[in-house]
Amino acid sequence: MTGTVIFDPLLPWPVLVGLAALSAIAVGLALWRGLSGWGLRLLAALVILAALTRPGYQIEDRAPLSDIVILIEDDSASQHLSDRPSQMEAAGAALAAKISARENTELRRLHVGDGAGDAGTELMTALSTALAEEPQARIAGIIALSDGRVHDIDRAPDLPAPMHLLLTGREGDWDRRLTVRNAPAFAIIGEAVTLTLRIEDSGAAPRGAATAPLDISVDGAPPDRFTVPIGRDIELPVTLPHGGRNVIRFSVPEAEGELTDRNNSALIQMNGVRDRLRVLLVSGEPHAGGRTWRNLLKSDSSVDLVHFTILRPPEKQDGVPVDELSLIAFPTRELFLEKIDDFDLIIFDRYQRRGILPAIYLDNVANYVTNGGAVLVAAGPDFATADSIYRSPLAPVLPARPTARVIEDRYRPEVTELGARHPVTADLGAGEDWGSWLRQIEVEPEAGNVVMTGHEDQPLLILDRVGEGRVALLASDHAWLWGRGYEGGGPQLELLRRLAHWMMKEPELEEEALWAEASGQRMRIIRRTLGETVGPVTVTRPDGGTEELDLREVAPGRFEARYQGPEIGLYRLVEGDQSAVIGLGPAAPREFEQTIATGAVLRPVIDPLRGGIQRLEEGLPRLRDVRAGRPASGRGWIGLTPRGAYETRDVRQTPLLPAWLVLVLASTLIVGGWLREGRR
């Protein structure tokens, strides 16, 4: 039971103050005039003013509430280093026992793990959630068992009681860390891009270590080792070896005594792109679709096009002097002998032998293909004649032989069963909606893959690999009809674009390929093949363990599987003769960027309420009661603030000046004052 005098005024307090002032003036005037009843009038005014404040005596039936202490245990990845788990387990059990043994005290234990993705330790978020679920007036203290590496300090709530941090780890802990900056997502093949690396030691690092070994591995290959200085930025030029995704892993061997090697590596994934694709287009006899290839290649800003057009063949004799022609001699020797290797692709569009390109030039083109170049032949009626380019030194690299028959008939191009699995012709659309072509050169395939057919299932588009290079033969010069919208047209630009990029060895158009697409710690494994079946893919985890996954066909020639990586790091994929590497998450997660225990991060939250930061290796601190606002931490102890919270079960109020008593007192005093003054 608790009794308290309370006031419930009938008028606002400013009004009561004004009435009191008027009463004081009236009494003062009576005193000045010498009226003998001024004292009784003063008492009457006080009684009336007291009655207007409505004083009462309130009795509350209160039930005391227990204090609440929040114990936060950091169970993030960095807390599993060294002997920190045993430190925290022992301290948590001992503190829980001490707090539970305190009179009128309840314990709330929170376990904080790693945040979603790579968010790190979200201790402040967990504390905010816990405080929102508890009455603020009952919180007596907050104790955190952690290494102090909190990554959401900007979400710190307003604390109702002192907070204390008990640090895990040891004073002599040290760690080595590798970081890489300035890593772009794309880089040009063959051109160096500069990365900034830094190896630094933190904590009680051993003295005398000025250098450290650095291993660099590309796409999972055996690493090359270099010796680099510690504590300095290193400018490292890197040249990507191939197009598509390049996975580069930088790592430093684990040193004796350091906390962990999880931050000793950095994984960089960069896509290699070509700066400029150089294409040589050789046009023979002019025809309606002569600008098709030129327009396609000129529309791509990454293509440097050299166009060789035969406008005046040697057999043309019209009597016009050469010095009066607006033509220039094309540098055929320079292009086909000296600089042929500078081109990524050579296209022969309705070209026929007329003596302009000697046999030695065409023989050099054949060698260019064998050594890794690419040649595309868009054949017209000239391909079926005696002057066909097939009847030249190029014949050994061409995938089909002309029969000398030119088919002049309407037909609709169709993708073959093999073509439905080839990346050049897969997913081009519904063939029944395509427009017709009107001419085709009959050929007999000798090598390669027929991916499209035309009139009476005759081969229309044949793709082949010759040595290190690639060759394609399009047995028609009517692809331009699709571009003109004839009978609805067709996917002309997409087909020719894919064809050109496949020949220039763009990675996304490889017919036999294995790769993976990552999303967090989950990956989608994709296997593309011209075959009808594939075997299981072998996944090698960062810890060296392996497992096999069966692939499911999701489209012709495309097989997929999904895999949840158990840990962050570099994964190797192998299926048959295809292999790939992929990194899941950062090589050094946020939890391992800084591993040395420190109270500096949480100090701005702890200091305002005078909490403390102490190391567990120095022993578990004692618990004391302290008043609010007083220092809550000292040598070997931490303080809790008893809150004295209670629950009110019943309230009773008794008026101190009931109306009848006010009436009797006020009337008696006023009448008494009047009688005294009247008698005088």
Ordered list of secondary-structure elements with their pairings:
Blueprint: E1 2-7, H1 13-32, H2 38-53, E2 55-64, E3 67-74, H3 84-101, E4 105-112, H4 123-132, E5 139-146, E6 163-167, E7 174-181, E8 186-188, E9 192-203, E10 211-218, E11 224-229, E12 233-239, E13 244-251, E14 265-273, E15 277-283, H5 292-298, E16 303-309, H6 332-338, E17 345-349, H7 359-370, E18 374-378, E19 400-407, E20 414-415, E21 440-445, E22 449-453, E23 459-466, E24 469-474, H8 480-483, H9 492-503, E25 513-519, E26 522-528, E27 537-540, E28 546-549, E29 552-555, E30 558-564, E31 569-575, E32 578-584, H10 603-606, E33 613-615, E34 622-625, E35 633-634, E36 637-640, E37 646-655, H11 659-679
Helix pairs in contact: 1-2, 2-11, 6-7
Overview of this protein structure:
- The strands form nine sheets. The chain has an eight-stranded mixed β-sheet with strand order 16-15-17-18-24-23-22-20. The chain has a five-stranded parallel β-sheet with strand order 4-3-5-6-33, sandwiched between helices.
- It is built from eleven helices and 37 strands.
- Helix 1 (13-32) runs antiparallel to helix 2 (38-53), helix 2 packs antiparallel against helix 11 and helix 6 (332-338) runs parallel beside helix 7.
- The protein starts with a strand and ends with a helix.
- It is elongated.
- It is 19% helix and 35% strand.
- The model has no long low-confidence stretch (mean pLDDT 86).
- The protein has 680 residues and is α/β, with parallel strands linked by helices.
- The chain has five domains: 2-63 and 648-679, no CATH class; 66-172 and 597-644, 3-Layer(aba) Sandwich (Rossmann fold); 174-203 and 212-274, Immunoglobulin-like; 277-503, Class I glutamine amidotransferase (GATase) domain (Rossmann fold, 3-Layer(aba) Sandwich); 513-584, Immunoglobulin-like, CATH 2.60.40.
